[in-house]
Amino acid sequence: MARNDGIDRTFARNQDLPTLDDVAKVQEHNEREKKSYSNQDIDTTQTYRNIHFKAPTGSYAAMFDQMIADGVISTRGLKSDAVKYGEMIFDVNSAYFHNHGGYEYAKQFYTDAYNAAVEIVGGEQYILSAVMHADERNRAMSEALGQDVYHYHLHVVYVPVVEKQILWSKRCKDKSLVGTVKETIMQVSRSKKWESKVALDEQGNPLLTSKGKKVLRTSYSVLQDDFFNYMKAAGYTDVERGERGSTEEHLTVTQFKVAQEQQRLEAVTAQITQSEQALDTAQAAVEKKQKELQSLQKQTKEQRTAALTVQEIRSMGKKTITGNITLTPSECSTLKDYAVNGILAKAENSRLEEKLQQAQKSAAVWKQRYESLKEQARPYLDAVKLAPEKVRAFLDAILTQTRQTRQHDQPSRRKSQNMEL
């Protein structure tokens, strides 16, 4: 991974797969066997662009057993809890591929990287699967550039083996054969495959410490060197080697991702809070309008109860000879009052019903937004709800560790570089 300092660096990481459960999980991820992923950066619509440089012929475990049956590898003398599987991940920062043309350039780069992996592992026959992932979206770059940017990287799952000579024992009937090579096997051995090597100076002599002990290059440093040197020889001279003896790159990226997710969580949480407040306001407005309508309906009912009956109103007035109706001043005043009150009540009722409908529509919109935001934030809220202390402790631990690493790494950087160069 890159340190986001504008320099393109090769990165190679080797990890053990101690248990069959670890192997199965890596297989699910690498071969995209799951229907959905918790990693939101995996875009399954782009999975078809993933490239297998070596596709598995079955499950990783089944392929391992078949290799034993075919005599390709041997587990002779291996402890039951020994590590039998490994995975190497080859990587360069997303910006490197984006600036060189993207997908097509990444395909060629990782074709050469796969050839490097074959050489590092010791032969293609010991590789179970090698796949370039082209469906993992770089969210930060995509948002910054306003377009989808994908992070291309290579997963290589393999069996760590070393060549071992089996000698004839003293029990051999032909005493002339005792101590000579009986057979050569490719023994599964993680420890011997990745044992540290002696660091050499420019003349090829072992480097020594101040106490006269040989300086050892860790397997991680050896892998980084081998990958970088192979890719440089293949023509990729515009990338640098990942820093020696330092975990700063990994911690920096982890811290960056945690900080990004913290900001997202805070932003979504704030939006949810705002939506909840708006929803509460809208619901309160609806309740208020409903109460006003109920009050008006109650008043209308009371007025109707106190009002004259229809028959009484119809009986008002007297018909004259000409066919006209004459009302007494009292009757006329009464009818006018009821007419005015009825018109006002009808208008007010209509106005309140319109406001109620508007308030209900507004409440529905805010509720929909609230539910959408709540669904987006559900993983974060569930994590905080289920284990708030663990989430807080996890974030604090990463940030604290990063600060401490930076503080302690500065004085010892020159010394560690001298030790590993």
TrEMBL record:
MF term (GO), any: DNA binding
Gene3D superfamilies to which the protein is assigned, alphabetical: 3.30.930.30
Family the entry assigns: Belongs to the plasmid mobilization pre family.
Stretches assigned to coiled coil: 258-306, 349-376
InterPro entries: Mob_Pre (IPR001668)
GO biological process, one term: DNA recombination
Residue ranges of the region described as Disordered: 402-421
Name of this chain's protein: Recombinase
Keyword terms: Coiled coil
Keyword hit for Coiled coil: yes
Record keyword Cell wall biogenesis/degradation present: no
